[in-house]
Structure formats: C-alpha cells, structure tokens
Amino acid sequence: MDAASLKTLNRCRRERRAAVLLTDLESGASRVLVEGEAPEQPLREPVEKALRSGRSGTVEAGGRSYFLNVHLPPPRLVVIGAVHISQALAPMARIAGFDVRIVDPRTAFASPERFAGVRLQAVWPQEAFEESPLDAYTALAALTHDPKIDDPALTAALEAGCFYVGALGSRKTHAKRVERLTHSGLGAAAVARIHAPIGLAIGAASPAEIAVAILAQVIAALRSRGLEERGEAA
After folding, report:
1. Under a CB-based contact definition with an 8 Å cutoff, are residues 128 and 176 in contact?
2. Whole domain around residue 15: which residue ranges?
3. 3-state SS of 15-26?
C-alpha cells in the first residue's frame, strides 16, 4: 500500500467513513475508493455491494480481476431509554458486533446494576451527543415513550444521517410524534425515515421479543444502505 492510500484510509478511520482499497490483481496498482464518491463503471456495483456487506474479496469487472479490501467503521447502536427492552437489546446487539450505548437522564433507570458492562450515560440526549456525535454508521432506537427525551434524540439522529432511526409506540402515538416533529421544523421526508412502530413485524410481545425485532430491523438497515433511496431495499 502506498503512502497516499494509507493516509486516506487513516483519515476515513478518524472520520468514521467507509472505504475500499481496490487492487488490480494483474498490474498490482491500488487506490482507495471512499463511500459516497461513486466509482466508475463497471466497478460501481461490486464496490457498493462490498460496502454494504463489509466483506472483502475478489471480484471480476470489465474483464479484469480486483481485490476489494473493505474498511467499515464499527457500527454503533444508541438506545434512548434504560428500559426493560434495552436490557435485552444491549447484550444481543453487542453479540452482533455493535458498540452499544444507552442514554437516559433518569438515574433510577440508568444504573450499572441494571446494565452490567454496558456504557451508560445518565444525561439528556443532547449532552450525550455533544460528547459522542451521531453519524452515518450509528443506529438510534428511542424507547422511553417520553417526548421530552425521545423527540430531541430523534431529531438529532435524523439531522446526523443515522443509518437507522426507530421509535417505540403505537401508530396513534407515532402520528402525534410526527405532528410534533414536523411542527418543530423537520421536513416530511426526514420524519418518514423513522421506523415506527419500531422493529420488524414478527408479532413480538415480550421485551426480549421486541428487542429481537428491533435488532433484526437495525441489521437489515445496515446491510441495505443506499438501496432504500433507489427503491431497491426489501
């Protein structure tokens, strides 16, 4: 790897941006393709697929062989609300490879005894995000049912371009949420990105089942980034 490529990859790592180190297996020439900077055809589709899956490997494109070495930021899951669902969701998400953080200003809920080994921030979401900003490789699940806590977190997640934004609540509750967020100045397209009721529709009833439904939806969103805008996501 040449010095310029290494410098670009290090910059992407610091900025939590995804990139692919593309190597022509015939000539040995390599270059870095940063996510968001569309590569030329016929490499566009295999590079985009590699960025979604996170898998490195050899591909054939335009009659040539390339090795794609994928560098993705570690995905994060920020859970707003130290509730029963969060107690089940946090360990599941960690097993799936997510860096998990739980934010809840209610110190009676956000206690180490209830969330052993999980990063807790017993502060308001705005304060938590100042310390660790949201980004495109962060998912946010708002679970408190309290608009004073959930709404600012949802707004921040939409403005930061989080790859997944979900909120707990019935359709009636979400309709009121949409009205509040729209009234606060968020555009209809941004508000429409919120997954609510949160989680895949699997008939989940218990906190653990709801956690499974949420995590499955988060993973689906992570692996379909970029397809939703083109109407190709499942």
Report:
1. no
2. 3-71
3. HCCCEEEEEECC
